[in-house]
Prior knowledge:
single chain; alpha+beta; Thiol Ester Dehydrase, Chain A; six-stranded antiparallel β-sheet; 3 helices; globular
Amino acid sequence: MRSMSGLDFMFGILNGDISMPPIGQVMNYALAEVAPGKVVFRGAPGFTHCNPMGGVHGGWYGTLLDSCLGCAVMTTVPKGSSYTTLEYKVNLSRAIPVDTEILATAWIDHAGRSTGTAHGEIRGVADGKLYATGSTTCLIMKLPES
């Protein structure tokens, strides 16, 4: 990771040269698109992502948006650096029906030397409905020398 920019790292995941993080398999979403300052994830919540009332757990929305927002910041991180989430906020607009395919899209708002911010949304693929929005602030940091 020290040898490539954040954008190159994200393209490596998209192209399959770098393994997808295991959280994507557990949460049933994957990176679908990468561009400078923008990423898109595609997925669908399943029954295993439901709360006791049978609805998709809010943590699914939050985990997906945290991944998507952070990866948008990662596309701006210079070679030899990485990021970590400092805080994120999620607003749920409506319930996502189980097995509904969605796109989560995030766009960079600011990328500085030490922080990055991004905003994003979750929309249905078939219906285009807005299911959630979110924002993040990330810490950008130099990776330690080996």
